[in-house]
Queue: 2 jobs
Job 1
Amino acid sequence: MEVGIVGGGLAGLVAAISLVEKGVDVSIIGPKSKDSNSYLAQAGIAFPLVEGDSIRIHVLDTIRAGKYINDEEVVWNVISKSTEAYSFLVSHGVTFTGNELEGGHSHPRVFTIKSETGKHVIPILEKHARELGVNFVRGFVEEIGIKNGKLAGVFLNGELLKFDAVVVATGGFSGLYRFTAGVKENIGLLIGDLALKGVPLRDMEFVQFHPTGFIGRRTYLITEAVRGAGAKLVTGDGERFVNELETRDVVARAIYLKMLEGKGVFLDARGIEDFKDRFPYVYSVLKKEGIDPGKDLIPVTPVAHYTMGGISVDIFYRTRIRGLYAIGEAASNGFHGANRLASNSLLECVVSGLEVARTILREEPKRGANDAPYNFDELGDVDSIREIMWNHAGIVRDKSSLLEGLKKLEGVEADQRLKVVAKAVLTLALEREESRGSHYRRDFPFMRKEFERPSFFHLNV
Ligand code: SIN
């Protein structure tokens, strides 16, 4: 059996190692693993393993953060497998240096490697994958080859690479927003490709904004663990206005509203004595920008960070096409609900990578006939889509602004894969006439019982 994994971040590497260890022929197709959002991950991975913590408490925190539309079976499934995920990493050479507290967690359960966790974990796993014989193919997959509902492989530079199973592990689409501290290339190309081929997308309206982005020469993230260590959020005139350890949706919205009042918002981390040692990455970034966190206030602004929505999969990470799977941020099966709990994403990456490997071994799919590529055009005017998403599908939305966004989108000359991703977000945000988690409607500023359910975007093709 030949398996193609599109994307070499944490989820893709875990799936690849698990499969190759069972004798499967595995290729990872994508940019360098270093160019993934997993590599950029700072604080860490949520495991409910410290004394006093439990799977049950972690499940409850996840559902509370997700505002009660998480798929409970999925939540229990993922978090119950956290011990297995932890053991997988440790047995493959990962050593954590401690654990931190982040917003929405009842315990300091975020296992970290000096708050630059991805930078340490990804190279270790990539080295294992190479040593075990995983074939790395560099490049951006343009589309998934599907003909008459059957999977044939993936297209790279117009050529079909044939596989019996394909796992989409590309990450999400926060790069489709004007400001993100994540990888700019994560624009959801394959999510859109699959939507155009009739694969349903789920929960696309839920886009998480990280409260403490820092816009300097580039856009950076100041890990939430800095707030966990005691940093406070204040306005320019010194007012403290939110509990810094509330969930991200609440904190990001509070900052946004202060900014609308024309007030600058700052992180005051001057009380953290061992800042440089505890947060070496953030320290070095700030120093380069002329800010000393021991003396200066740090200007912050929310930035697009994580997309809860994506390719709709079941609890085993299967799409509706036999042999086609999706894991990590590219996938959506209700684990995060309306708002992801901090550091649950890397946990999901490891668990979904392990789980999809078992699913593929059990199902042993066989590839279908060859397909011809669609011949998509150049990507076109991506920046106009980023502008529309930022202005019309941002932290606060309403009917007229969403409709305006949809109208503007029609006029943009850009690749239809990207346009359909943007359309899915705007459409589902318009249909969800309530506020829940990361989706806040100024015209419906409350949760409504009739919307206590996931959303799906499905083109009948
Ligand atoms: C952070 O360290 O604040 C980001 C980690 C995450 O997104 O969970």
Job 2
Amino acid sequence: MSKEKVVLAYSGGLDTSVAVKWLREKYDVDVIAVAVDVGQPENLLMVQRKALTVGAVSSLVIDAEAEFARDFIAPAIQANALYQRKYPLGTALARPLIAKLLVDAAREHGAAAIAHGCTGKGNDQVRFDVTIGALAPDLRIIAPQREWGMNREQEIAYAKEHGIEVPVTSASPYSIDENMYGRSVEAGVLEDPWNEPPPEVWSWTMDPSETPETPQYIELTFKNGLPTVLNEKELGLAELIKELNQVAGQNGVGRIDMVEDRVVGIKSREIYECPAATVLLQAHRELEALVLPGELIRFKQTVEDAFSEQAYSGLWYSPLRESLSAFITHTQKFVSGSVRLKLHNGNCAVVGRKSESSLYDLSLATYDENDKFSHASAEGFIELFGLPTRVWAQKHGGKN
Ligand code: ARG
């Protein structure tokens, strides 16, 4: 009789390699390793091979770069999504996609369970479990890390005992997650929020004190709220993001150091490198400032915060997140135009913007003789605008 199958989210690292062995020992199952390409710099061919050497019965690599960009990053750009107004959600956005692809693989191979290498303290377990629950409530979820109760040393010992090569990177005290939209680093000396991140934690961005002396100007063109052209070169979203990571990273743009609130209630100190996200969100917001009415921008900010919290919390496939996105998509109809930015020594500044849909009217804004704004109407407007304030003051003024 053939064994029960488990689909494992496989990264090639120590945790998920040990998980392959552990799943076989503990549950007597066949493990199907799945690695998802969301634009991380790793060589996934090596990862694919490694899964087989550590005992998976089959090992798949799924190229999901374009899908990640189109279905997850694009809505996040349009939403100006930042968790706690700081973190562009790189890791958070990839999780529901990976979970969805795991579910697809489980269906295809007739697996009864999905396994992932998340610990019991982080957000990622929440995102995987909630997404799998939303898409395939019948599938069992196994989280070896959460179950096996081994600490780091015990895990390394287990790996050696079972002939699993312990990669040098496992000696690194940091926990790192990467995809095209950003790099997330936690643990090690970063656990003390008073410690400045040491130089070795950064990898996508140059130290701003060592970046070129001359500023670099770039131009981004957006169509319906999404970037389509970088410096006159038309690019697919994934390509554009990857190229922008290089350009902005070389200028030291995109370093974030924050203390954030995890879904499970823990405050944690994280650092992020997201050069492209930093530039894109700034440019997109600035374009919106030019083409959207002020009251829509203000209202959209509340929607953006709600979107960001849903995405962070693993509620991507929730009716609320989908409804928020529907609203956001509608707002992007006229968000087309170009933004010019100056990258220099870790800073990114918008220095120009233009759009066919611009609501900026020079004859209203100017202080010179071409001014068409009705100054006389301003007086009447203020009379009524300030009316409730005057009535209140008459009633309560001086009473304190
Ligand atoms: N704190 C970030 C988040 O929740 C990043 C998590 C990164 N994961 C990791 N294994 N290093 O999205």
